[in-house]
């Protein structure tokens, strides 16, 4: 691995850091969840994205013609690391828009789709959500049953999606639908874009409240929902392959590691000021987590280093996903315990230590081993993917961000029997 940051990247880092410190002053409410907990946070995240848009920082990795800065992999790592460390808020514009649908359209979209949708992502106007999962289709996504039937110039959709994160705040949805029920299950799926979902007749969004008591995701029901046929991405019945494109934008997860680092710094400062007995009880454990967090950072840099060298990470990204999600669960669990009874106060309680970040992060870390392809599935990938699939990065790939769900792309062969150590 060779990922050294040079003068150019360090200068950018300072610029991004100064911007974030100013923007996020007095908004230290627990990092990554900022933007999703309530209307006030959502408004704040909207304005934050508008500020980013004026700098071309919503999608720095995108080509300039689509509103990006054509940033290289190292520059993207700098953005991701600083955004993660400072808990930069999002609305669904960057996560789903920049990380998922944008790069997919850059590759598979028609010229009209690119011209229509990409600028609205980089301006922060379009807030996207992802309609993939269904009650009977999660890890086995190709079992999805939501049906779309061609009727004149439209598709008519009937069915249901579930776990649609941010669906209640989004104005746009990309989704997978079954257009040929008789074809083998991967071959009868199409990829559709639904505009203005709040005002689409027949589309109903119902809240699902998560175990943190937050309205994060939703069920979405389709009853004769009409979508113009021009909103199909790629060919009819070939949507599975469009959907899998998302997987090429695998992430280094460096933002996750940076967010964990910041939490560990706060816990260290708290422990330094704590009575001796608490310091003695916790400092070795805390030191272990700091070391483990550094291991996570270098695993993330490994992904960046591969991308910078023109290689596409595959099982390496799964290693990172497992490592970071499970480490996060342990760190936040430790933090809640270290802070004692008061450590259980949620952010709404003014006396909560560290703004209630720890219990919130602890609860929100639980699903991190389920979404983006569950950790069991990631382990399958590590076991089953060819060890060295070294193909050039697509020229239009944005590298360091994106998603890893769902995980079916490289069935077969094998194997590098990695049993990656995760600190207990
Ligand atoms: C917080 C959160 C946000 C989400 N947001 C979205 C979203 O915005 N849009 C969207 O479309 N979906 C979203 N999802 C859904 C997510 O993609 C699915 O939960 C995930 O793919 C797992 O599917 P499932 O829940 O149906 O579990 P299942 O697939 O039913 O799995 C149940 C269990 O069996 C295990 N398992 C399944 N198959 C295998 C196998 N082959 N080998 C070993 N173990 C296996 C799984 O690991 C899991 O432990 C979200 C989920 C969460 C938790």
Short structural summary:
The protein has 424 residues and is of the alpha+beta class. The protein is built from eleven helices and eight strands.
Keywords:
single chain; 424 residues; alpha+beta; Butyryl-Coa Dehydrogenase, subunit A, domain 1; Butyryl-CoA Dehydrogenase, subunit A, domain 2; Butyryl-CoA Dehydrogenase, subunit A, domain 3; 4-stranded mixed β-sheet; 4-stranded antiparallel β-sheet; 8 strands; disordered C terminus; binds flavin-adenine dinucleotide
Number of domains: 3
CATH superfamily of the largest domain: Butyryl-CoA Dehydrogenase, subunit A, domain 3
The helix-and-strand class reads alpha+beta
The number of strands is 8
Q: What is the gyration radius calculated from CA atoms? A: 21 Å
Biggest sheet strand line-up? 1-4-5-8
CATH class value of the largest domain: Mainly Alpha
N to C succession of SSEs: HHHHHEEEEEEEEHHHHHH
- Distinct small-molecule ligands in the complex: flavin-adenine dinucleotide
Outline the structure in words.
- It is a single chain.
- This protein is of the alpha+beta class.
- It has three domains: 7-122, Acyl-CoA dehydrogenase/oxidase, N-terminal domain (Butyryl-Coa Dehydrogenase, subunit A, domain 1, Orthogonal Bundle), CATH 1.10.540.10; 128-239, Beta Barrel (Butyryl-CoA Dehydrogenase, subunit A, domain 2); 246-384, Butyryl-CoA Dehydrogenase, subunit A, domain 3, CATH 1.20.140.
- 42% of the residues lie in helices and 13% in strands.
- The chain contains eleven helices and eight strands.
- It has a four-stranded mixed β-sheet. Strands 2-3-7-6 form a four-stranded antiparallel β-sheet, with no helix packed on it.
- Strand 2 (147-151) and strand 3 (154-162) form a beta hairpin.
- Helix 3 runs parallel beside helix 7 (254-272), helix 4 packs antiparallel against helix 5 and helix 9 (315-338) packs antiparallel against helix 11 (375-384).
- The longest helix is centred in the C-terminal third of the chain and has 33 residues, at 276-308.
- The model is unreliable at 388-424 (pLDDT under 50).
- The chain binds flavin-adenine dinucleotide (FAD).
- Residues 129-133, 138-139, 163-165, 217, 367, 370-371, 374, 376-377, 380, 405-406 line the site of flavin-adenine dinucleotide (FAD).
């Amino acid at each position: 691995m060779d990922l050294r940051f040079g003068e150019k990247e360090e200068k950018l880092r300072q610029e991004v850091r100064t911007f974030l410190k100013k923007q996020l002053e007095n908004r230290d409410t627990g990092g990554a969840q900022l933007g999703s907990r309530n209307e006030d946070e959502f408004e704040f995240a909207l304005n934050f994205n508008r500020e980013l848009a004026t700098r071309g920082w919503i999608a720095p990795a995108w080509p300039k013609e689509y509103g990006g800065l054509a940033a290289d992999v190292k520059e993207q790592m700098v953005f991701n690391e600083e955004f993660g460390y400072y808990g930069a808020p999002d609305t669904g514009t960057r996560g789903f828009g920049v990380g998922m649908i944008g790069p997919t359209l850059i590759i598979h979209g028609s010229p009209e789709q690119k011209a229509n949708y990409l600028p609205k992502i980089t301006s922060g106007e379009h807030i996207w959500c992802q309609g993939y999962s269904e009650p009977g289709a999660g890890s086995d996504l190709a079992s999805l049953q939501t049906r779309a039937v061609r009727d004149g110039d439209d598709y008519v959709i009937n069915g249901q999606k579930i776990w649609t994160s941010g669906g209640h705040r989004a104005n746009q949805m990309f989704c997978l639908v079954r257009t040929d029920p008789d074809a083998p299950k991967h071959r009868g799926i199409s990829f559709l874009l639904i505009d203005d979902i709040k005002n689409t007749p027949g589309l109903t969004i119902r809240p699902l409240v998560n175990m943190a008591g937050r309205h994060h995701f939703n069920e979405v029901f389709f009853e004769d929902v009409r979508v113009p046929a021009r909103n199909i991405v790629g060919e009819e019945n070939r949507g599975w392959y469009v959907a899998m494109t998302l997987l090429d934008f695998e992430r280094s997860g460096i933002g996750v590691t940076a967010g964990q680092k910041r939490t560990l710094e706060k816990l260290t400062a708290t422990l330094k000021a704590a009575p001796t007995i608490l310091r003695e009880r916790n400092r070795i454990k805390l030191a272990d987590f700091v070391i483990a967090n550094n291991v996570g950072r270098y695993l993330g840099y490994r992904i960046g280093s591969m991308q910078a060298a023109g290689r596409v990470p595959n099982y390496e990204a799964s290693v990172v996903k497992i490592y970071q999600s499970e480490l996060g669960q342990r760190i936040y669990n430790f933090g809640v315990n270290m802070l004692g009874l008061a450590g259980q106060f949620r952010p709404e309680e003014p006396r909560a230590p560290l703004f209630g970040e720890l219990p919130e992060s602890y609860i929100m870390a639980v699903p991190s081993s389920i979404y983006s392809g569950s950790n069991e599935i990631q382990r399958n990938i590590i076991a089953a993917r060819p060890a060295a699939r070294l193909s050039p990065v697509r020229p239009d790939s944005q590298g360091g961000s994106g998603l890893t769900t769902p995980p079916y792309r490289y069935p077969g062969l094998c194997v590098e029997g990695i049993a990656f150590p995760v600190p207990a």
